[in-house]
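Sharing a chain and its predicted structure for anyone who wants a worked example. Both blocks are below, sequence first, tokens second.
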Amino acid sequence: ILGSDSRSLAMDVAGSRFIRDSTNKLIQLNKYSCILMAGDSQAGVHLIEQFKEKVKNNDSLKTISKKFSDFCRKEYEPYSSNYILLRNSPEVQFILAGLDKDKKGKYNLPKILVLKNYDWFFIGEEGEYSINGKDNISNYLFTKMYDKCKSSSEKMTSLIVQCLYDTEKIDGESGGEIHLVSITEYGIAEIDPQQYIDKIIQRDLINI
């Protein structure tokens, strides 16, 4: 299960910052792979939009990550001459998530890979889950609830929505629509978050 908000901060030529609540931070790459982004949304969207046309439908997540790492390094070449320039380049972080084939050729091996500009887009492999962006509340809730939820896709979806919903309440840089998808052996399917949001609101009202 993958989830993201849709709020991003942008800056015009005069230096004024403004909020967009329609940024797609969760993008399907092929039948079994998605990419999520955090950080500088303009840089992130540019990289993903330029790259996704290069992805083939039968590419494994490992293949996609290698292609994407090479692509991002080429795009960030002007910042590569020294560490200070790289640290001051547009900050972007990506999570590549999906299913790879097992020995029998079936797509049922979950894999999560991360790439960050300040690590020169080195491909890092995560464990059972990965959190990026505004992650304080999500890290707390996952540490507390993950073991209780991981065996149920319904509970896991509810936990992800809870993380995004609670983060929006305390952080003005998070918000907009919540986007959710599930990835199974049958492919990628969107999940409507509203039923989970309604349950959270109802629970909050009861606890007042």
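Comments welcome. Residues 22 and 130 are 23 Å apart (CA to CA).
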